[in-house]
Amino acid sequence: MILGMPTKSKRRGSLETLPTDLYDSFQGVIAKIRECPSASQAELGMQVLMWLHFAYRPLKLAELQHALAVEKNHTEFDADNIPPRKALLDCCLGLVKVDKETSTVRFVHYTLEEYFHKYTTAEFTNWSTSIAETCLTYLNFGKLRQHCKDFSSLKENMNKYAFLSYAALYWGTYYVKHQCIDDLTRLANTILDHESKHPPCAIQALYWELDKTASWRRHVAQQFSGVHVTAYFGLSESMAYFCNMERNIELRDDSDRTPLSWAAEKGHGAIVRLLIERDDVDVNAKERGYGWTPLLWAAESGHEVVVRLLVERDDVDVNAKDLNWVDTTLTGGCPWA
């Protein structure tokens, strides 16, 4: 080996010693990634860095590989497009590693995350649109647009499609930040406004992640609909569409929760305002688990704006109690009432 040769190991070592001009070191390595003679390798390297920076939780190697395998306008998953582990790591020039114990992909040092927080705009453009498009393209693969009748079918899909859980749980969070693109809206509407009476696998996977009792009961969602998903993510335009189309805004999901209940828990004031102004929405609807009303969900989650929207109405029960008869009187105990 030639002495002084800038190998991947030496680059990683220099990063871990935390030099004074650390950010300059990062910029230098990232510049080398962008200037890679192979355009495909350069693109792959920047995509890996983008996903790790904007991920809402650590990504398993298989999850990241599946995400990177997705291409625009794909209708089925192409396993032959999965980047090998070695290629994925090599194109990042030592900035990324795979944790041996958890199989998660992460930055070689936490200071790289700090660097990207400072230089997000410079390093990544249209990141929310790109990630949302990947998630929605994945969820629209033929198999995932079908309804899973039982636990074994859902589990089979979750094992085969490694990116399913992450895409289902977070696509809406990226989508609300995206630029207005017709193709992206079409992909979202295909999932939300599905024609089947029962939800597709893409929606069932989301419910599986949200309902912590579903796993031990092996319950697969049968009633959790696109309207519930719209309320959960706070997609105002989609909810306005459902309202205008006279869809069942009071539809109960598998836990007996209404869209208003989900919107209140997540603090989506625009959705809550839109729903409570309708005559066909029960503002005191209780869910089956704890008997909580939308007001109790909003108060428990600390959403002051939503609490105010609800308590200002004369028909909202501010003295509601849950099924355990725990006193949840808001007029005396809630600082916002």
Mean pLDDT: 88
Tell me the strand order in the biggest sheet: 1-3-2
Helix content: 40-55%
How much of the polypeptide forms β-strand, as a percent range?
A: under 5%
CATH class of the largest domain: Mainly Alpha
In short:
This protein is an all-alpha fold.
Descriptive report:
- α8 (127-139) runs parallel beside α11.
- The chain contains 20 helices and 3 strands.
- The protein is mainly alpha-helical and 337 residues long.
- Helices cover 53% and strands 3% of the residues.
What's the topology here?
Layout: H1 8-16, H2 22-34, H3 39-54, E1 59-60, H4 61-69, H5 85-90, E2 96-98, E3 104-107, H6 110-118, H7 120-123, H8 127-139, H9 151-160, H10 164-175, H11 182-192, H12 201-210, H13 214-217, H14 226-233, H15 236-244, H16 259-266, H17 269-276, H18 294-300, H19 304-311, H20 330-333
Antiparallel strand pairs: 1-3, 2-3
Helix pairs in contact: 8-10, 8-11, 10-12, 14-16, 15-17, 16-18, 17-19, 18-19
Sum up the structure in keywords:
Serine Threonine Protein Phosphatase 5, Tetratricopeptide repeat, 3 strands, 53% helix, globular, 3% strand, 2 domains, 337 residues, disordered N terminus, 20 helices
